[in-house]
Amino acid sequence: MAIISIHDLRVVRGGTEILKGIHWKVAAKENWVILGANGSGKTTLLSCVTGYVTPSAGTIEVLGKQYGKTDWRELRKEVGLVSSGIRHWIEDQQTALDVVASGRNAELNLWHPAKGTLLRQAQRSLHQVECANLAHRPWAFLSQGERQRVLIGRALMARYRILILDEPCAGLDPVAREHFLEFLRRLASTAKTPNLVFVTHHVEEILPCFDKALILVRGAILSQGAIEKVITSQVMTEAFGSRIMVQKREGRYQLRFLAAAMPVGTKA
DSSP string of 222-241? Predict the structure, then answer.
């Protein structure tokens, strides 16, 4: 059974076709990267998968359950989402432990401290994301990188089978970004980590644990499949509309913009 199965998905809003005939399958044990420029349709695709946007046409199946024939509110308890939107919904006084514990029932902002089994599970989850020392620190005083780890800990509390990371490195400085990516690499290597879907603008953030890639351009799929066949200079040039060279060193991708050819007769 495919973890995610999408067939001929279309989303039209206000006469504009935002997604155009999307076909995409995620098999068990596959970790995917979704890459594309601003406005390519990444967020809309994720919103369809998590049931926050209603498709105009096509079918979506997640964990064998079809959108429109299943209570998507229940299904969301098996599909974790770490995004900037969630960060803004959490109240400043909530501690890291509170935030993680709230994930057990897919809720936000606990009204009372976790106790008993819930407390022990939240403590284990915080330890798993290497944030045990932050248990009693308020949300307002966590760094961006710490918040991202805590949100992943919250997602793991619900025992999700899919974890969607929507631009998790946005807002991180270069050092914090590398620390977070190294943490994500360690997390992906553990046996009980769910399928990962990582959304980004930057090939430099793609880790060796990701084996498949999906590239979107103006709401359509430009390329998808094995990552080494998708993350290429030619595909990236088409995706971002600029001459790009992609290289891979020590398991990580690097991107370099090339100067466009100058018209004949133009002075430098």
Answer: EEEEEHHHHSSHHHHHHHHT
Cβ atoms within 10 Å of 46's Cβ, excluding its own:
19
User: How far apart are the C-alpha atoms of 121 and 100, rounded to whole Å?
Assistant: 9
Q: What are residue 135's phi and psi, to 5 degrees?
A: -50, -45
Choose among 146, 139, 105, 141: nearest CA to 122.
105
**Residue 265: left (phi > 0), alpha (psi -120 to 50), or beta?**
left
User: How do strand 244-249 and strand 220-226 relate by DSSP bridges?
Assistant: unpaired
pLDDT in tens, the chain (268 residues): 789 999 999 999 988 999 999 999 999 889 999 999 988 999 899 888 888 888 999 999 998 888 888 887 777 777 877 876 677 788 899 999 999 888 777 677 777 777 888 889 889 889 988 899 999 999 999 988 888 889 888 877 877 788 899 888 887 888 888 888 988 888 888 867 788 999 998 999 999 999 999 999 999 999 999 999 999 999 999 999 999 999 998 889 998 888 764 344 444 3
245 vs 256: CA distance, rounded Å: 5
161 SS3 class: coil
How far apart, in Å, are the Cα atoms of 255 and each of 63, 197, 243, 259? 35, 21, 10, 13
